[in-house]
Amino acid sequence: MGNTQVKGSNYAIAIVVACIAFYAVPVGLVGNQAGLFTTPVMEQFGWSQTEATLYMSIQPWVAAIFTPIAGKVLNKCNPRWVLTLTSLAFGLSSLACAWFTEPWMWHCYGVIYGISAAFFMYIAVPTMVNRWFVKHNGFVIGFCGAFISILAAIMSPVIQTWISSMGWQQARIIISVACTVISVVLTFALLRPSPESMGLKPFGYDPNATEAAAADPSKKPGCTPAEARKSPALYMLMLVAGFFVISASFVQQLSRYCSTMPELGAAVGALAVSIAMVGGIVGKFGLGWICDRFGSRTAGVTAGALGAIGVLICFFAGGNVTMFYVGVALFGVGYSALSTVPPMLCSDAFGQKSFTDIYSMVATALNVFSGFSALIYAQIFDITGSYNGAFWMIIIFYVLIVIMSLFIVPMGRRLWKK
Q1: Of 187, 346, 406, 413, which residue has the fewest beta carbons closer than 10 angstroms?
Q2: Phi and psi at residue 133, in whole multiples of 5°?
Q3: Is 382 or 19 the better-scoring residue by pLDDT?
Q4: How far apart are CA 108 and CA 97, in angstroms?
């Protein structure tokens, strides 16, 4: 028993590397660099911003359609093959963008990106981590998510240099080839369906737990998707995830906001984005630890409170650049909860019995909200001529996150904790 437990614990580390490969590498190396390619593509082909960026809205909406299917496939099929193939599809479609000359081609990329993201974006990491880890799940999920911000922060200036010196096509080829090779090779080499499939035990395995529950996921505690759909807790969790993703997308508006404020300026906006990313990295580690130590409710309340306080500081900072940066850092901690708190709330509220199927419903809602986020901010600015309404909207969202985080877990647990 002891020897098996050691092997299981050791191989869980390989699963973390695989999760980083199929999740953090595509998103951090390619997905989060999309804005760097927008201007050079528009200038070369004379496209409007809508033509050049429509695929960014197509992607989450397509992902929303395919996420329920992805959840069922990951449950029934070997995730090693599924996630290797989705990594390959995403990498090759990103590579093909280097030769695209029409907007509809980028729209097709958005469709392929959306289908691939349905598998690797929100549900695959918590699914694999919950299978391979009994302890420290929140920290591990946060650790995987932090690599997105780390990769984005490191590679953004590098990729911008490549675009300036070699052109956007060559830069696209380099990052796409690197993404494809790293994600496909490591996912195929390291990912395995479960500890049981290798005759191992998950990290933190408790020998006092029933062998039946350890060997048969259907016997793990939790409720069914049908039971979850009857509970308001599920719909509150969908709203929490949606509010997190809309609020998180405001980081893409920081540069634009600062450029509209004479007392701040574009230079402040550029540094503010970097500070938000650093806050996001710290937040993913910190909130993951809070999930493990104090529970997902506490993590949700902490993220919502820090996010609201951070946005309030930004809004009332005026020309005080130092205070603005403090607010941005706290906002970064708040929005970092997107990849950690919703899956942990789902796990704590509804258990492990049908986690993937239930969280796929939450991820579907998350993708729908994500598709509308950029449009919401554009409409607020176009109608009012400022971002004031956006600030108050985000503050309200974070306050609602705090309130709903207090109720989701106890309401969900009443379905199966007798």
Answers
A1: 406
A2: -125, 130
A3: 19
A4: 10
Helix 103-120 / helix 355-384 crossing angle, nearest 10 deg? 140
* Burial class for 107, CB neighbours closer than 10 Å (0-12, 13-18, 19+): middle
Q: Which token pair is 293?
A: 């130590």
Residue with tokens 């993708």: 367
> Which residues, including other chains, have CB under 8 Å from residue 266's CB and lie 6 or more apart?
255, 258, 259
**Cβ neighbours of residue 212 under 8 Å, at least 6 residues apart?**
219
Could you tell me which of 55, 31, 37 has the C-alpha nearest to residue 170? 37
**Could you give the CA distance from residue 219 to residue 213 in angstroms, rounded to a whole number?**
5
Does the reported pTM lie above 0.85? Answer: no
DSSP-H helix ranges across 121-167:
124-132, 137-166
Burial (0-12, 13-18, 19+ Cβ within 10 Å), 168: buried
Structure confidence by residue, pLDDT tens digits, 8-40:
567 999 999 999 999 999 998 998 888 788 888
Q: Is 385 helix (H, G, I), strand (E, B) or coil?
A: coil
Phi-psi sector, 136: left (phi>0), alpha (psi -120 to 50), beta: left
The tokens describing 198, both together, are: 């290798």
How distant is the alpha carbon of residue 302 from its chain centre? 18
